[in-house]
C-alpha cells in the first residue's frame, strides 16, 4: 500500500493522543509531513495525558536498508522543554519511533546488521544521554 493511501485509510482511525513518524514514513512519497507537519518536537494535552511527539527519523531516511534514527542536542532540549510544560499531575508521554536504550535483536536480520555495526537496529546514538537528563525523563511528578 502506498504511503498516501495508507494515510487516507489511517486518518479516520487517528488516535486522540497522536502518533509520531516512523522510518517508513519517509520512504517513497514521504507522508511524514502529512503525519507530523511542523517542528520535530510537538506537545499536546489530551485530558490527563501530556503527549510529546518527536520525529526521530530525520530527513536522511530515504532507503529502508540504511535508515536509522537521529536525535541532536536541540531535539533533546526541545523534548525536555516540552515535558517541563506538562501540567501538574498529568501523565507525560514521549512518542517516538526509534528506541532510546539498547534492545535485544528481534530476529536474525537484526542480529546480523547489529554484528556488522550498521545503525539500522541500534538505539538512538544519544538515547542514554536523553534518559539521563535532569529532571529524569521517567520521573513521576
What do these coordinates show?
The chain is of the alpha+beta class and 141 residues long. The chain has helices at residues 3-11, 32-35, 73-84, 108-116, 127-132, and strands at 41-46, 49-54, 91-95. A three-stranded mixed sheet has the order 1-2-3, with helices on one face. The model is unreliable at 6-17 (pLDDT under 50).
Compact description:
The protein is an alpha+beta fold and 141 residues long. The chain has five helices and three strands; from the N terminus they run H-H-E-E-H-E-H-H.
Secondary-structure map:
Layout: H1 3-11, H2 32-35, E1 41-46, E2 49-54, H3 73-84, E3 91-95, H4 108-116, H5 127-132
Major sheet size, sense and barrel closure: 3 strands, mixed
Tell me the strand percentage band: 5-15%
State the low-pLDDT regions, or none: 6-17
Task: Kindly name the structural category.
Answer: alpha+beta
Q: What gyration radius follows from the Cα positions, in whole Å? A: 16 Å
Number of helices: 5
Task: Give the strand order, joined by hyphens, for the main sheet.
Answer: 1-2-3
Mean pLDDT: 74
Distance between the termini: 42 Å
Please describe the structure with a list of short key phrases separated by commas or semicolons.
5 helices, three-stranded mixed sheet, 141 residues
Amino acid at each position: 500500500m502506498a504511503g498516501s493511501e495508507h494515510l487516507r485509510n489511517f486518518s479516520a482511525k487517528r488516535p486522540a493522543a497522536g502518533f509520531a513518524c516512523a522510518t517508513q514514513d519517509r520512504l517513497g512519497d514521504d507522508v511524514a509531513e502529512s503525519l507530523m507537519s511542523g517542528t520535530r518536537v510537538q506537545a499536546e494535552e489530551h485530558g490527563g495525558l501530556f503527549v510529546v511527539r518527536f520525529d526521530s527519523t530525520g530527513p536522511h531516511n530515504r532507503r529502508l536498508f540504511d535508515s536509522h534514527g537521529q536525535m541532536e542536542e536541540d531535539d533533546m532540549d526541545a523534548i525536555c522543554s516540552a515535558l517541563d510544560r506538562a501540567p501538574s499531575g498529568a501523565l507525560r508521554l514521549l512518542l517516538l519511533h526509534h528506541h532510546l536504550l539498547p534492545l535485544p535483536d528481534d530476529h536474525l536480520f537484526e542480529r546480523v546488521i547489529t554484528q556488522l555495526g550498521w545503525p539500522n537496529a541500534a538505539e538512538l546514538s544519544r538515547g542514554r544521554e536523553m534518559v539521563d537528563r535532569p529532571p529524569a525523563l521517567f520521573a513521576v511528578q
